[in-house]
Amino acid sequence: MEKREQLYSGKAKSVYTTDDADVMVLEFRDDTSAFDGKKVEQLDRKGMVNNKFNAFVMQKLEAAGIPTHFIKLLSDTESAVKRLEMIPIECVVRNVAAGSICRRYGVQEGMDLNPPTFEFFLKNDALGDPMVNEYHIDSFGWATADQVARAKELTFAANDVLKAMFDQAGMVLVDYKLEFGMYKGELVLGDEFSPDGCRIWDKETRKKLDKDRFRQGLGGVIEAYEEVGRRLGISFD
Ligand code: TMP
Ligand code: ASP
Question: 113 near 94, Cβ under 8 Å?
Fold first, then answer.
């Protein structure tokens, strides 16, 4: 497989076509952004760490029966993925209250959400990724009812797998965001799963081990990502 031209460059990843129309290359860069791209910095090793982290998690999810776009690692910072037609909706599951849900509803960070709650956001930085509901998705034609139902089902299925995986490694999966797309008529998990798009706390100390360290200027961002990975058994050498 041969990498060809750049198709798209996002805030943290670039996407390239290949000689196979069904396959793309994802390049994980060191760029780190928050607040809809208003805060951007380069963090050394981040592209490599997130590429390997994502590969590990995507393979876990695939093994648990969740279809993903992941094909294989190509290099420290690149992976081959299936070329999906992306749905512009972000699916968020929250096991513990943190971030925007605390601001919106005036609840304290750290409150257990039982059962876990689910939210949709529109992927649109210019609008600040507003929260949307199933009626909006239907009326505006962002996805069909079947796609929405399947995305919800797969996002919750991922919670069962990932919550247990982090728990066994002494961590709490607070929340996470997934994005889906279509591949040959099937809804498939796309984008990435890394500490950039989820919240992970140490189970005992509740130390933040995810992108909140960057958002809140706490320092030790990549060190924390690597610690999470090491605890899960990922090698970053
Ligand atoms: P929030 O608390 O900012 O709504 O985010 C919830 C989780 O989803 C958090 O782990 C970050 C992730 N997320 C993204 O990675 N990108 C996004 O655009 C949004 C809205 C959430
Ligand atoms: N990933 C989004 C951004 O870069 C949201 C966030 O993580 O704060 O702006």
Answer: yes
Superfamily of domain 85-232: ATP-grasp fold, B domain (3.30.470.20)
pLDDT in tens, 56-70: 999 999 999 999 999
The ranges assigned to domains in the chain are 3-82, 85-232
Q: Describe the strand order of the beta sheet including 23-28 as a list of residue ranges.
A: 3-9, 13-18, 23-28, 78-82, 70-73
> 3-82 in CATH: which number?
3.30.200.20
pTM of the model: 0.98
CA-closest residue to ligand 1 atom 18:
129
| Amino acid at the residue 20 | D
CB-defined site of ligand 2, < 6 Å = 11, 33-37, 211, 215
pLDDT of residue 237 exceeding 90, the answer is: no
